[in-house]
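Quiz preparation item.
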């Protein structure tokens, strides 16, 4: 057995790109004979059982920790419970992590996303390296972490960020580190798409304000003289779905359907589909990658993450985010020139598969794990004896039980 690597995961679900991409890194490390431990928050959600089963099927040991707030207090997600209750769970998580580090003889801890701090503290207390994997631009809902740069800087041995635009944006923010790059990897089981009966515009992904699907609906409205359907595949945020429904009803737009969540969305696409992705912000855009690896013509908004992916693959068509007239025109031309675009998309699949591999995507992370730089002791180690490794086993367990009951009530709404 090679080294033992412990990952801190942000959600314990596969409904986001950060989890999907780093699951593939964890699975690769297992295949290379690393022991991989994965710690995620216990969200008391049905989809977490699928997450745990898939991890364990691939040799990844998973443990879900109880948590009132898993991310930084000021991160997205609100402030459930009281200050005291949240503080208890943060300390409890750090203690549990230290116990895992000790019992599994962990060699390095990796925190997947910028949103958690507990792994950095636990690693510092135990005197082992900690790496941060950053997927988020410090903008909008994630601008909060600009105030955490000093902590991230001081409590990292390596910092990795999604390639191109995000790496460039973070390069001058960390005085102790050269920010290294990784490419989010998603595994595609390419298969021949079903033969389509008619042309469709398809958007794959959760319906949210950030994904900006209303922009696509508005552009589609301008195509009402064309015989084409618009299909949204994925779950949704209720408020945003209501906003989209209201717009469709008010403008009496026909031909739009919402499938809801599908376990294998790409199996629902056909040989006559075009994918359109309108996100206001992406770090990379895994659904774009999945679409082009399936030989589907793609149109995508020109946000920094999409541009990073486009620069790597050079496949598809970009439009200026917010320019609905341009988007409508690009869609219309793509439908009229569909056969040419489809042939080009299919011809490029094989070459794309050669440049997009898990080894190339995570080359710098894998290298750092295999041959780490000298460990740098962190000043927080001086408080290690104040961060109990068995707090959750103490008399405070009565408080924990009370908080768990409150947490279940909070989750149920």
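Solution:
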């Amino acid at each position: 057995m090679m080294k033992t690597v412990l990952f801190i995961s942000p959600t314990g679900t596969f409904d986001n790109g950060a989890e999907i991409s780093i699951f593939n890194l964890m699975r690769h490390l297992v295949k290379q004979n690393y022991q991989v431990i994965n710690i995620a928050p216990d969200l008391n959600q049905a989809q977490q059982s699928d997450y745990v089963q898939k991890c364990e099927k691939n040799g990844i040991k998973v443990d879900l920790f109880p948590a009132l707030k898993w991310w930084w207090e000021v991160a997205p997600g609100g402030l459930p419970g009281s200050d005291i209750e949240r503080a208890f769970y943060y300390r409890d998580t750090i203690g549990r992590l230290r116990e895992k580090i000790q019992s599994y003889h962990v060699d390095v801890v990796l925190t997947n996303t910028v949103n958690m701090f507990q792994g950095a503290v636990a690693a510092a207390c135990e005197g082992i390296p900690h790496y941060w994997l950053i997927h988020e631009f410090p903008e909008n809902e994630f601008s909060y972490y600009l105030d955490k740069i000093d902590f991230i800087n001081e409590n990292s041995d390596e910092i990795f960020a999604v390639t191109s635009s995000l790496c460039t944006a973070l390069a001058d923010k960390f005085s102790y580190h050269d920010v290294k790059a990784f490419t989010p990897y998603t595994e595609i089981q390419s298969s021949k798409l079903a033969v389509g009966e008619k042309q469709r515009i398809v958007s794959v992904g959760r319906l949210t304000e950030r994904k900006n699907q209303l922009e696509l609906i508005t552009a589609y409205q301008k195509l009402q003289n064309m015989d084409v359907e618009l299909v949204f595949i994925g779950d949704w945020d209720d408020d945003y779905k209501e906003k989209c429904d209201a717009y469709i009803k008010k403008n009496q737009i026909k031909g739009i359907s919402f499938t809801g969540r599908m376990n294998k969305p790409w199996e629902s696409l056909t040989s006559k589909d075009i994918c359109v992705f309108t996100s206001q912000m992406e770090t990379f855009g895994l659904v774009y990658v999945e679409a082009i690896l399936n030989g589907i013509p793609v149109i995508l908004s020109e946000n920094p993450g999409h541009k990073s992916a486009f620069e790597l693959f050079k496949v598809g068509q970009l439009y200026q985010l917010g320019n609905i007239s341009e988007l409508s025109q690009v869609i219309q031309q793509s439908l009229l020139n569909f056969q040419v675009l489809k042939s080009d998309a299919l011809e490029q699949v094989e070459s794309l598969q050669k440049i997009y591999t898990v080894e190339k995507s995570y080359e710098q992370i894998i290298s750092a794990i295999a041959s780490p730089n000298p460990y740098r002791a962190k000043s927080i180690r001086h408080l290690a004896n104040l961060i109990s490794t068995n707090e959750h086993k103490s008399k405070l367990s009565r408080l924990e039980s009370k908080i768990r009951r409150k947490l279940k009530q909070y989750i149920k709404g």
